[in-house]
């Protein structure tokens, strides 16, 4: 269905099976929030959850809550709740630490597995994209520099060059499933198969795909995955991240961050580390309970729909956005950075423009919230749980008005955080 | 002043300059909370802070709050607020991640500094106590196993043997300032000097001393320190931890957890890691903002007193507890594990007993909250900000009643979490 008027968008919203879920979020009147790919909006339930944890669990029950409120089990319980959204089985996911730290564990474990196998011990290259989210590259740099065993990071410029770059020296392919900047969606099953064909392992960062696009980790036979809970999962600012280790790799999953939460007997107070069996060996230290607990309020909402419904609406929203921008802003040198092909499009859309930063500031001043990414990219995220077709229509109207009338300050100073 | 009656304790409470601070905490009527060394009680202000962050910063302002609410600067701002409590200078502390992960960074950095200096490159031993909190030992095991450069962990059985164990092969001495089990308080200045005399570096874990005893990191010329914000600092369950790197070591502070928050230009999206100058190079990934922000409410209360006043009351409380237990429970084979000497006593007191676990459960059933630690230890924490002399008196009355009448279940099953 091609939506060619604001009225048609309003009708589409009425027909949208996800329409009711929007009411579950705190969204200011008049704001069009297109940045859920950076920080997800707040489920109303998150405040009630935090108040309960602070008042009852911490305030009244204090130390007892480690047992009675299940704080110690929270990383596993939330992991199991999240698992179906990413095609993982029960007891394969924990919610803990940060995406960067979880990636460190996964890279370390993958290199260790490769190094222990005589068939792969010679492999020294880690392949990733030069446009991968920088912290992913930095974490790989960190561990390879410290291991000091000749590992080398190969940065691929274009996703099309990925498959042909994998060769016999490739130890590890490490990608963000949906590129944070371009919104390019990798074919997880194909890339993983290419990696395996050359004896390499494959780690996926799901920061921009968990809760946004269908993910089938086990079906793709992926090796490890990490991801973030504060974007499309709406877990709250800086909410702890997740790590997925499939059952087939758990027994050999070893990493250097061997803290007491990953110990086989954490309260026996032993003097030597012995990894617990199963997914909890991916844990390290004590977790921030209030921030962790709020993640449940975000995950609960996914029980009222499914990832295919979310995907269908996501593509309809991004299709509409691209069509409208290209139609009403045709004269303004906007370059679409995001793939047109549904097969390779995530849930955000990026356009390049000489004055991208200034234009984003002008949009924000009108309560249309997108964000800016270096170099010269305007990024707009579409969250099917709360973004409406009318939001998209109105956002593009604002954008075209700003562009047509040059209502942005070309000399604005950049002040970019996040 | 020796307190020999409940009346005298009540009078001492009235005279106590910290008495008013107790009102700032949520403490259930009738509960005697002696476990602030495990999870600090809740400042009333923490709920207001969380509500503000959730409702206004996340809920209303969403992504803008990274700038407008100062989320990105929070680790440094809280670090600077915490610094005076541990004898640190401004811009030497950040609040981030967990104690285990921060210790990993500190150990990695110390071993790196030692390995780069020809005078110390041969050193291969890390000295710690066998009774150190297990995760500290495990993190050292994790990094040494992965570096695979011949490092060896030497576990000391008694604090008296520490100084004589340090020798020319010692690369690193790593201790918890106040032992989590015995409450033994190490002489930071003396031990650090002994380590330096042998060319070793010295890392201190302040989990049981920050906010509990005066700490003078710079005066002691310590090398690195880490610690936790959810015990005596009352930051909330699993609140992010802190790491101290003195100015003299910051330029050479390098660790493998090189995430984007530690980058010199985190938003320039570069493809290579370059550590930021200063303390923020100890950061790694995005932090759990709600749990992080609540720490401020705990720290704020310390501005109304000083560490010497806290120390004086702490010693008076632990003196009273030891005296009363030894007086009224004299016939019950309780063995004091904590040093009698003020010089070596932290802010908790531990007694050994054959039925320690069962006795602690009986106390908890009466709302006297202490905790159990393997092997056979009852542990009682005294938090001068909210523990009263009358609390101490009453707790010992309960203990003696339970012991005198054997009101505990010797066959109870152990179910120990935390």
From TrEMBL, chains A, B:
It holds the Pfam family KYNU_C. Keywords: Hydrolase, Pyridine nucleotide biosynthesis, Pyridoxal phosphate. The modification N6-(pyridoxal phosphate)lysine is found at residue 231. It comes from the Bacteria. Pathway: Amino-acid degradation; L-kynurenine degradation; L-alanine and anthranilate from L-kynurenine: step 1/1; Cofactor biosynthesis; NAD(+) biosynthesis; quinolinate from L-kynurenine: step 2/3. Coiled coil: none annotated. Pyridoxal 5'-phosphate binds at residues 99-100, 133-136, 176, 205, 208, 230, 260, 286. Homodimer. This is Kynureninase.
